[in-house]
Amino acid sequence: MSASPSSKPQKTNPVGVGIAGAIVLVLGIVGGIIPALVILLALMGTPLFAVMGGASELAWLHHPDPNLNHFRFIAPRVLDDHFAGSPILVTIPLFTFVGYVLARAKTAARLVRFSTALVGWIPGGLAIVCVIASAVFTLLTGGSGVTIIAIGGLLLPALKKEGYSDKFSLGLLSSGGSLGLLLPFAVPLFVYAILAGVDVDAAMVAVIPPGLFVLFLFSGYAIYVGWRDKIPTKRFDPVELGVSFWELKWEVGIFAIMGLGIKVFQLNIDELAGVVAFYTIIIECFVYKDIRFRKDIPRVAKSAMVMAGAIILILTMANALVNYVSDQKIPDQIFNFLASLGLNKDWQFLIIMNVFLLVLGMVMEGFSAIFVAVPLIIPFAARFHLGPFHVGMIFLLNLELAFCMPPLGLNLFIASFRFNRPATSLYRPILPFIGILTVALLVISYVPGISSLMVRGRIAEEREKAEKKGDPPREAWLLECVQEDRLNPKPCTKEDEAKYPDGKLPQTTTPDPAADAGPEPDAGTSGDDDDLLKMMAAGDGGGAPSKEAGSAESDDDLMKKMMGGGDGDAGASGDAGAKPAPSAAPSGKIDTDDDLMKKMMGQ
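Now predict its structure.
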C-alpha cells in the first residue's frame, strides 16, 4: 500500500532552497530584517497581493519621518485618476470574460480549420497553422495555458500524422502558447500600459510590427523544417477556404468590431470592451450555440471574474508599493549605484534589464512579473530616454521567453500536464524556439525603431500642433520616451533639451533697467515729468521726500509737488497771500487754483 500524501513528506529541491536562503541572507544583511522577511514570504508562496500590500504597510510604518507613519499614505497612487479613474480597470475584466467564453466554445477547432485551408499548401503549412492559431487564440483568451490545452489537443495528433517529429511538434506547441502576448489587445499589454502610464491606443498600434516580426521568425522556421523533413503539402482548395472562413466569420467579426470601434466610432477602450463582450455572448450562445446562456455563462463569468479580480487586486497593491518607492527615491539610489560601477550606457542597461526580466519571469506568474518589474524599471528607462513602446515590447517579449525557459517556464509545466509527459522531457524540444525568441528579443531591444514605427505619424502630428500653438511638444515627448512624471514631461533628445530647457520655452531677454530709466534731469530744472517720477519712486520705496532744513511740509505741499510743483523749496509756508515765483525758479510755489490749472496745462 502506498503511503498517503499526508504521511509522506514532499521532496524539496536542495539547490533551490540554498539559493533562496542565500538571497534572504544577503537582503537581511544589506537591507535589514523587513526586506528579508518580505522576500522570504514571497519565496514561500505567499500570494503576491499580500506580499506587496504588507510590504507597503511595513514600509510606511517604519518611515524615517514619524509624521508619515500612517496607513493613509498607501492611498495616493491607488486612488488618483491615473489608476482609480483608468478605463483599464473595466477593460481587463471584460476582455478576460471574452477569452473565457471563446475558450469554452469551439472557436479553436474553427480557427484551426480555416488556418489549414489558408496556409496548408505552403511547405511546413500545418506548423504555420499552429503558429497562427496559437497566437490568435492566446490573443483572444489572454492566457498561454488555455492555448496549449485547446490548440495542442487539436494539433499534436495532426502534426504527427503529417510526418513532423515528436520533438518538433512538442516544442512548437509548448512555445506557441505565448506568441499572442505581443499582439494588439492582449491583456498583458493593457496591464503594462496602466502601470507605465502609456497611451493605450498608441500601444495597441505600436505592438503590431514587433508581433508580426516574431510570427515571421516562427513561420520561417516552420517552413524550413517542412522543407528539410520533406513534409507533404496540401493542395490549395479555394472552396474549403471559403467554407472554413464562412464558418469562422462571426468570430472574425470580433476583430472587425475592434477596428471599426476605434477608427470609425471613436469608442474608448472600456466601451469597446463592453461591445465586444456583448457580441461574443450573442454569437456563442445564440448563433453557434456552443454555450448555453443560462447554464454556462454564469460559470464562465465566475471563473473570469476570479482571474480579473486577482489581476486588479495585485495592480492595486503594486501601486501602493510604488508610492513608497517613489517617495524614498529608491530608483535614484540604485541608478547612482549602477553608475558608480560604470554601467551608464544604453546597451549596458538593456542587458541588465533583459536578464532581470527573464529571471523574474521564470520565477513568477506572467502578470505578477509585470506588476513587480514595471515600477522598478520605468524610472531607469526614463533616465536613459528609452521609448515607452520600446520598453513595453521588451517586457512582453521577455515574458514570452520566460514562459518557455527551462527549468521553471510556465508553459513547460502546462504542456507537461496536457501531453502527459515529464517536464524535463520538454527541455530539449523547446530549445530551438527559445533561440528564435532570443534573436527576436535582441533585435527588438537594439533596434528601437521597430517598436515606434507605427506611432511616428502621431508623434509628428503632436509636434506640429504644439508648434502652431507656440508650446513645447509635451504630448510628443510622452510618446517618444519614458517619463518619470507624466504631468511634467521632459525633452527626449539633445536638440529638444537645447530648444526647451527643462521642458519649457526659453525665457525672453530681460529689459535693461538703465535703458528704461532715461537720462537724469539737469540740476535746476523744475516741474517736469522726471520730478514726478522721482517723487513717486521715493514714495514706493518707503522713504519720505527729501526736505531742506527747517521745512514744514504739509499734505498740501506734497500734493502740489505731485501735480507738477517740482523739487522746489519747501521751507516756505503755504500762505495764500504769497506771490508765485517766476516759472524759471525751482523754488516757486503754487497758491491759487488758477496758477495750479496753468501749471497742469503747461503754461
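The chain has two domains: 80-464, 465-503.
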